[in-house]
Amino acid sequence: MKRIGLFATVFVVSACGVVTNPTSPSDPASNSAIIYSAIGASDANGVGGSVPCLPYVSCPDGTGYVQVIARRYTAAGKTVTLQNLGVPGAALSKTFQDIGNQVNRGIVVNFLNDEVPFVKTDATLVTVFAGGNDANAVATAAKAGIGGADPTTWISAQITAFGRDMTALVTAIKARAPKARIIILNLPNLAAMPYAAGSSLSDKRALQAIAVGMNAQVNATIGQGATVIDMMCDSRLYNTAIFSSDGFHPNDTGYALFADLVLAAAATTSSTAPKSTCTFMSAY
User: Fold this and answer.
1) Whether the Cβ atoms of residue 116 and residue 172 lie closer than 8 Å to each other
2) CA angle 255–120–9, rounded 5-degree value
3) How far is residue 1's CA from residue 90's CA, in Å, rounded to a whole number?
4) What tens digit of pLDDT does each residue of 56-111 get?
5) DSSP letter, residue 250
6) Is-contact 1 165, C-beta < 8 A?
7) What tens digit of pLDDT does each residue of 187-237 get?
């Protein structure tokens, strides 16, 4: 299932941390018609919410953030065309799909090969939430010994590869939908999420290093014109009340928060750059 895309053009970061892009597309809410393509995995389908959606099926009552965003725009009087490309378990690229499948994660699609090529060419909004499945795949593979005798170096190489593929993702979205506003949600510290609570300290530290490293690569897409929402340093993303029973997927409250963040980011052509450091990056 699939995830949501990003937007293009050149940003300037000021000393106060505000990112502006005078040549970027206008905020989608300023248009009477919004064409929204979502790139993602289970998050785009609302897994963990009270009304999850099947891939590629119209799901107007879904409680995932993608569906909530569409309904809120409709309630505001906009005509919304929603294309949800999300598929549960999807990874960013074939690189991470292959790593995950080496440890039996059953990843059947990836964003670069299976989602971006189908983004609507006239999309005005593309959202992306990438990295959760990729980070978990790398952590599991490293623990299984796939990284060899020097897992730290292997993990570092995968973080670099993730950055390369994020750059390719944004480039591909811009080529496919040049008028779209691209909004990316970066990663929280996965090691501080409830699903990792029972992990050993060494496993938490490895997962933290992967999540923080991949998060920096997501943040770098600002240089390509993407708007990046800072999930890593937002304390609300670590509140157990926003998670479903599996401790990984958001519940309805969590997805509503995701929708709030995307809608706020989409409503302006200026945004605050994600923090380069915060306490949540070093929880362990």
Assistant:
1) yes
2) 85
3) 6
4) 999 999 999 999 999 999 999 999 999 999 999 999 999 999 999 999 999 999 99
5) B
6) no
7) 999 999 999 999 999 999 999 999 999 999 999 999 999 999 999 999 999
Three-state SS annotation for 171-216? HHHHHHCCCCEEEEECCCCHHHCHHHCCCCHHHHHHHHHHHHHHHH
Rounded CA separation 151/132 (Å): 19
Alpha helix (H) residue ranges in 49-143: 65-75, 94-102, 111-114, 132-143
How many structural domains is the chain composed of? 1
* pTM as predicted: 0.89
**Above 50 in pLDDT, residue 168?**
yes
Helix axes 252-266, 65-75, angle to 10 degrees: 60
Taking residue 275's Cβ as centre, other Cβ atoms within 10 Å add up to 14
Q: For residue 85, with 0-12 CB atoms within 10 Å meaning exposed, 13-18 middle and 19 or more buried, which class applies?
A: buried
End-to-end CA distance of the chain: 32
CATH code, domain with 142: 3.40.50.1110
Residue 97 within any structural domain of the chain: yes
168 lies in some domain: yes
Closest CA to 74 of 265, 263, 269: 263
81: buried, middle or exposed (CB in 10 Å: 19+, 13-18, 0-12)? middle
Give the Cα separation of 50 and 251 in Å (integer). Answer: 7
